[in-house]
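Cast an eye over this sequence plus tokens and walk me through the fold:

***
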Amino acid sequence: MDVVTPKENIFKRIREALVSVPMGVIPMVDLESRVYPEIKDDEVVVFAENFAAKGGRLVYCEDAAAAVRSLHELTEKCQWDGAVYCADEDVQVLLDAADIEYACKPIDAVLRKVGFCACQSLIAGEGSLVFDKRCQGGRIFAAADVLVFVAMAYQVVADIHLALQKIRQSDHSSEISIWTGLSRFVDVDGNTLEGLGPKEVYLILIDNILD
């Protein structure tokens, strides 16, 4: 007489259950309808509100000259002298104009505690920042205590789908990272504690008008 083990008996019951259940008709996947809710207000305003709600600090500048002044004032106020790392050439132009000293060698990304880089896109619906390997954002994200992003107002898009679309159409698509709020976790006592990653995130947002 064959001996049926409990394990075989379970497998048998599973097979019988699968055979007895009729296959339902799977509807066609809708690839056209919107997944994300439509943003009816100004996308830049919506982004600013969501970015601040995620713990980000926004510095709005009317033009490049205002951005240079804001960077200089922010660096002095926060005492970042000698602590800045930036390997993004576009942002280095602003730092040079603001007379801010920075390091740019790969090893400096670990040694300096304030990292500057540009963004690929700003996602209004989530208040998120999209940056990539070309901006050197991933390198500083792992080591810096403070991240300072620089972006233009026209880079704001409604949702992540549109952000990824822009990246695919660009000539610089590479490793993508997305920041969506400061890292936090709750311990067993219910206390909110700081997680991994940067402790502060700033965004220098420059309007479309450039001098």
